[in-house]
Amino acid sequence: MTPTMPRTGLQLRSLVKADGELEVSLAETDIAAPAADEVLIRVEAAPINPSDLGLLFGPADLGTLRFSGSDARPVLTARVPERAMRGLARRIGQSMPVGNEGAGVVVAAGESPAAQALLGKTVAAIGGAMYSQYRTVAADECLVLPDGTTPTEGASCFVNPLTSLGMTETMRLEGHTALVHTAAASNLGRMLNRICIADGIGLVNIVRRPEQQALLRSEGARYVCNSSSPDFLAELTDAVAATGATIAFDAVGGGRLAGQILACMEAAINRKAGEYSRYGSNVHKQVYLYGNLDLAPTEISRGFGMAWGVGGWLLFPFLNRIGPTRTRELKQRIVDELKTTFASDHSHEVSLAGALKPEAIADYSRRATQSKYLILPNRG
Fold it and tell me: Looking at the predicted structure, is the pLDDT value of residue 1 above 90?
């Protein structure tokens, strides 16, 4: 074990109090010596993913945010609507560390050979509490990054890469041959586009702006539909018909988009139908909601027969479904293609304190497709 191991470090925490107040702050936490099979990572970079915002702010009304503390140790508070408190009952009073994933350098290690072998290595990790200056994790949960890879390049090598690979894996497991993806100009969407090009999978990309269409087309995407276009539904139906897509992954969640995708799938299928059926086609059409970029209710106007499904999709249940062997294979592909297929762009880099500045929160809480923040926990 390294004798110069730090004793304390800052950690970003989120607390919901019984009176309905959310408090987000930086706490100084003690750092324990790693156990035999553990390592201590000096976290150098951790992304703010949409999935992190659910723990960071929960259902708090960001219009009520108040800021106090100092520039170095800010404290922010906001009100949680009374109707939302029941769903938070099990986290009330618990100061919870935030941050799903990140990367850094192993600065201390337990006594086991596996842990000792990681000393000085640049690694990525997932499992929460990554918005911390230091994070202790099990040695076998670390992903060693290739030589020459910086923590910034490896910070986002779990959530988005595994999710994009999980989509094509789920497609195959459930008997589909092509897929539809929304919010497709995101880092995740661009990864998925590169995967589908490499693996010969038909992909229909849905975006909201012309410049996002241009970006994806410049990266080789063949089918990119703009949901803001007056011809969106016709263009989506044509793209689905051309690819044969019968499964979709929707990051938007709220509104009518999921139902529109199902309707376009049914319309595309019926172009080849031999005869009319009042029950619709017998081809199963599936939309998985995996994000909440739109927090409005999901609206489904049924007009696509009876062979369809809408459900949720989460990364960790999927990984449990495919098992550890296949998960390791997917992780190895990510390592092998980290700077190509799974490269991530970040629009902003901030310190732990910088992540709690009003202007930063106003920006990243919008969950805009191409606004990606990276926290550098050890930046002064």
Answer: no
